[in-house]
Amino acid sequence: MLTHNTKKNNIKFFYSYSSQVGELQMKRKMISVLLALVMLTLATGVFAQQEKVTICHKPGTEAEETLSVATPALKAHLAHGDSEGECSFTETDTEPPTVTVPADITQGITAGETNVIIYYDASASDNVGVISFSCTPPSGSSFPLGTTSVICTASDAALNSTTASFNVTIVESS
Prior knowledge:
By secondary structure, this protein is α+β, with helices and mostly antiparallel strands. It has helices at about 5-45, 75-80, and strands at about 50-55, 65-70, 85, 100, 105-110, 115-120, 125, 130-135, 140-145, 145-155, 160-170.
């Protein structure tokens, strides 16, 4: 005779069903808690764009820089020596311009001529910018027999200046 224990199978079925329902309820509760946290975070503005304030970070040092930080961080920055507002850079330019001139020029002219027009390339550069540059006599000038010194001078906005020179020698050709 085959016997079947219904009570035992019902208990197993009830336990299996109960644990699945329990897991599902637990997952629903976890999702509800996570959703509540996200809503709270959005409501308090953590993900919202915060107002920014401009500060001078590490003023008076080589690392000085103007930054934009969130308003809640301002108090901490001020506490360690930063200041509100942009940095005012007062770096002094002490580097003079660089003047580039050609090597000495020697030019022959035929007998009876007294001068010749000479063209040359000279230039100036500077780390902040050249505000004036000139050569005397300028390129394209008429040079007489003999040696003439050409002097080129450049100045920058901080009034640093540099002078360089070269010679133009005009000789009679035979």
